[in-house]
Amino acid sequence: MAVVQSKSNIGPPPRAVGRLIFEASRRAEAMGLVEPGAVTHTDLRAVRLIANQARKAGIAAAAAAALNNVDTPSDEEVAALLETIIAALEANPVPKFEWSGLSRILDAEQLGTLLSVSASSLKRYQSGDRATPDSVAARLHFLALVVGDLAGSYNDIGVRRWFQRKRTLLDGRAPAALLKGTWDPDDKGPMRVRELARELVSLSAT
Question: Domain range spanning residue 100?
Answer without folding.
Answer: 95-204
